[in-house]
Design brief:
Metallo-beta-lactamase, Chain A; five-stranded mixed sheet; 2 domains; eight-stranded mixed sheet
Length: about 400
């Protein structure tokens, strides 16, 4: 199967499609890569808000005569064609796994993917929830009769996969739950959001549409979107800071007067450039913030700051127990997260070192780039939206 990108045609009836905040609007490209020869494949798409876009990944696992889909992505015509090709060579899709209870970006594609493969069992992590109304899974499009709950109603392919739950953890509105699994044949640990490894360079998926990188590479709103390797690199690193901290310390928001004064510059008077509206200003030192996430320019297995500060500030012990369980897997060789880089070399000693680092540092801090996340958490606690017990100190 060839790897590459192709564009899904956008709906020409909606000329205002770029004005909607959910990138990639009416287009969705997919990068298909073979991660472990003959065993694992990655189907990567982009998703985000206002060009703050990061890769999201579905992993296809070859088992004995069948295929499993872990953390599905949108089943575009391109995705389905590639999956049919894999079925011809490796057997039918028989399992579709939603490994999270709270990740909306992973939950939304599952019903459509289940309809595309009517003979596949659908496995979901426990304590699924919806907002603002708690709706049954059937009302959300999950197929009745072939949807099962992980751990409570068994596990898919337990002879070939080792499953490890993180949670369920009470978040107030709902619960956080993640189901990681080790594919024993390849030594690959599949995780959803619990762990990431961020690359120094822009992922290949951006080659099909570098606009998110070029948009954020600018210093002012009246600068054109100029493509270059340096601009793509700068844009990627800023996107990482956005996705990690929402509002990193080195990001300033200029006043509306400055924003509108720079808008509508020549070359930017079009919807896909937001008409030059660019409410960001980066101050000196932002590169150092990025390097703290990607030390020595290499992907490092870590807990994403946004997860640590908003989801797990009071659940460090549960996270450490999960990591310790994963570190017992002697066959572990690779980490395959649903976001950022994959596969990343990862062995039991790497997870043990991560545990040591979490124990020795201040957990879920409040200062620096963490301040904005801490403010959100504090506000949610005051409103009674999340549990009020204190964050676990480092």
């Amino acid at each position: 199967m060839s790897s590459g990108l192709s564009a899904e045609p956008r709906d020409q009836r909606w000329p205002w499609w770029p004005l909607l905040p959910l990138y990639p609007y009416g287009r969705r490209r997919t990068l298909i890569r073979e991660l472990i020869p003959g065993q694992l494949w990655s189907f990567e798409q982009l998703q985000g808000v206002f060009y703050v876009a990061v890769p999201i990944r579905m992993t296809v696992v070859r088992l004995r005569h069948v295929l499993m889909l872990y953390a599905p992505v949108a089943p575009t015509a391109e995705v389905l064609a590639a999956l049919r090709d894999l079925e011809l060579r490796h057997g039918p899709v028989r399992s579709i796994v939603l490994p999270t209870s709270s990740g909306l970006e992973h939950k939304l594609p599952v019903p459509a993917m289940a309809r595309a493969f009517p003979k596949a069992e659908v496995w979901v992590s426990p304590q699924q929830w919806s907002f603002p109304l708690p709706l049954p899974l059937a009302w959300l499009g999950f197929p009745v009769g072939r949807t099962r709950v992980l751990f409570e109603q068994g596990l898919p392919h337990p002879e070939e996969l080792h499953w490890h739950p993180l949670g369920p953890l009470d978040l107030g509105l709902g619960s956080f739950m993640e189901a990681a699994c080790l594919h024993r044949a390849s030594g690959s640990l599949l995780v959803c959001d619990g762990l990431v490894a961020i690359g120094n360079e822009p992922p290949e998926i951006f080659d099909g549409d570098p606009r998110p990188l070029l948009f954020h590479a600018r210093e002012r709103g009246d600068q054109p979107l100029q493509d270059s390797a340096a601009a793509r690199l700068r844009g990627w690193r800023r996107l990482v800071l956005f996705a990690s901290y929402l509002r990193p310390e080195r990001l300033q928001v200029p006043g509306l007067g400055e924003v509108f004064a720079q808008a509508m510059a020549p070359g930017l008077r079009r919807a896909d450039a937001y008409f030059g509206l660019y409410p960001f200003r980066w101050s000196e030192g932002w590169e150092a913030e990025f390097r703290s996430l990607v030390p020595d320019g290499q992907p490092v297995v870590q807990v994403a700051p946004v997860l640590e500060r908003l989801v797990l500030p009071r659940r460090r012990k549960a996270l450490l127990a999960w990591l310790q369980a994963l570190a017992q897997e002697a066959e572990l060789r690779w980490l395959v997260p649903a976001h950022y880089d994959a596969p990343v070399p990862c062995r039991a000693e790497d997870l043990a070192a991560l545990c040591d680092g979490i124990r020795s540092r201040n957990w879920a801090p409040d200062g620096g780039s963490w301040q904005y996340l801490a403010g959100i958490d504090t506000a949610l606690v005051k409103l009674g939206v999340v549990p009020s017990e204190p964050a676990e100190a480092g």
